[in-house]
Amino acid sequence: MNRLLPLSRLDALLLLTTLIWGSNFTVIKSAFRELDPPAFNALRLVLASATFLAVITWVQRRPASAEAPRWWSVLRTEAAITRGDWISLAIIGVVGHFLYQVCFVGSLSRTTVANTSLILGLTPAAVALASAALGQERVRPHHWIGLALSLGGLYFIVGQGAEWTRTALVGDGLAVLSVVCWTIYTLMGQRLMERHSPLGVTGLSMALGTVPYVVYASPAIRATDWTSVSPATWAGLVYSAMFSVCLAYMIWYVAIRQIGGTRTSVYSNVIPVVAMAVAYVWLHEPVGWVKVVGAAAVLGGVAIARLRRLPFLMPAEE
Prior knowledge:
Elements: E1 3-4, H1 9-31, H2 37-61, H3 83-110, H4 113-120, H5 123-134, H6 141-159, H7 169-192, H8 198-223, H9 231-259, H10 261-266, H11 271-282, H12 289-305, E2 307-308
């Protein structure tokens, strides 16, 4: 008989990730008042990549120990990186850290936030379909029910009043490409982490994806007057790099490794709910009963998707 999994430490970390990514919308919007989007993204990716590489170097220099705690495998594995691994890391770096950022920012600049958010809400369904097609995971009926309920909730949150005009078609198309990029990133990363640590996969792929992004953003970087950037914007950039990129990406990959891409991706449906709540508190944007119903549907869908049938679906940490 199905029963709901108790809230684990991993679930708590995933909810923390939704809080970080949801609040990051407000942080980024504020920074875009002073910085060009590609320049902002390039700088935060460079900062995040440098942080990851520094931590990876520190971890690899520490002597291996048979008495290391279980969580140490999140930071380090002894498996050598093969040529095929480097190719896979380069692919997910380009797809998940370069193309995704280009498409996401391009979408926001061309279409409405409502359109972009609604389309990105298709990510869990895309991950589930791709995972099932590749035979990586068995997607059960209650997963589909949870996904459908969450998607319905997303429509009530961001779909009401969305503008579908000809001028927004390019932006909508870029949002669809963002979904494709994140799906590839999630599934390929899951396979890499069968042998390597989440820290290594995330940090190395990010560094590899940051190089082409800096080249792409170089005109915007040169055109920016960095001396005029306010302390608040610098603080927002550091927050976005350290929390939204470094910490949140790490948690995301740890979750993929522990519970699979399908269950992990469902939590991305919570992000619009968090974004709505943050906007209500900090920007005083109105929240009507329709959006409250939508938020309840999203959270209910996540709860249903966490139902289990077999013990091996439990996170490894438990």
